[in-house]
Amino acid sequence: MYTSVGSERRFDRFLYLGASLIFLALVFWTFARTFYLKRLFDTPPLSALLLIHGVVMTGWVVLLVAQTSLIAAHRVQWHRRLGVFGAFWAALVVLLGSITTLHAAAREVRGHTAFAASQITITSLDLLQMMFFAGFVALAIWHRRRPGNHKRLMLLTIACMLPDALARLPISFMTGATEAELNLRIMIGLDVFVLISVGVDTIWHRRLHPAFAWGALLFVGAFHVALYVTQTQGWIAFGRSLIA
CB-based burial of residue 144 (10 Å sphere; 0-12 exposed, 13-18 middle, 19+ buried)? Predict the structure, then answer.
């Protein structure tokens, strides 16, 4: 079946703008009670660090929607100008994300709480997500003159943040799960997102794009391995020794 260049571009705009809007809605839904609509719910107060972290992470998601919207509106020059600001904001995301998760691990470990072991696993996975996020953003900037690579790498940054949103889904299927069940369901959700994104793109363009071929495979593969390794007693003991 013949596909025109114009229809391919329209499809790409729909895919990337749609993905960013859905992710924005998901983030708002999962963090509404504890952050966005906190005043409407009786939830524990947040520290200054968590508030700043929430603002920075929200800023990135909004920025992602703004950037995909500019492309959809054919405002390429504005997209590039905003991208300079986005590069600095991405650095803030990595910095605040890493500091926040390390602070949480230190609090649990030094307090000898029952949640300490789980927090080491969470922190390890969060740092892996931040590492991939930084890598994908850096590569997307490097390939900013190659739109095919750039937009697919930026889509993969959503996958880097997705586990944190999935873990906080306010539905009984997630809130009532054991730790092992929750980890498995987050992993399935991550796999489904990547599979749908890569699969739809591949079917439409009738080829697997190299940026998805190595980027998605590397990220999902590393996350699967890390999910197993970070739950072992050896890794948890190693994490305790670093933080204590």
Answer: middle
